[in-house]
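Continuing from the previous page...

OK, I double-checked the sequence for Protein yippee-like against my notes and this is the correct one:
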Amino acid sequence: MFRLIDHRMDSHSQYILQHLWGGDGLEVCAKGENPQNPSLISMGEFPGHRPTFSCRNCRNPVAFWQDLISKDFWGKSGRAFLFHHAMNIVVGEKEEKQLITGLFTIANISCSNCGEVMGWKYVQAYEPRERYKEGKFIIERAKIVKEY
Ligand SMILES: [Zn+2]
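Thanks. Re-ran it with the corrected sequence; updated structure tokens here:
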């Protein structure tokens, strides 16, 4: 069961929910995320393709810094990043998930080399204000390493 915690929730509430739920697929939109302007990371901060993010298990590169949209998401293992694009991953079967912000179709994504589940892809959002997430990827911070 995926849940989406309200943007305005403070960090203490996020902590409680994270640890009470603790189960599969907890997703939290952190404070400061702006659906009208999701590109919170300026391009000038991370010029070029380096560093890249690689699978923690097998070092298969899965995403570029320049495709990073937001670090302010949470997956089941903690902080997660939202990316415009991911590579060398396998997109699983689509499934519908009811989040607090509405109904989404998502698909788990896994490393194409070792099969480790990395996060999920937003396939479709049914609420207009959530549509900016469509086609984008959540990758859990704990599943990747940054390589220069
Ligand atoms: Zn891997």
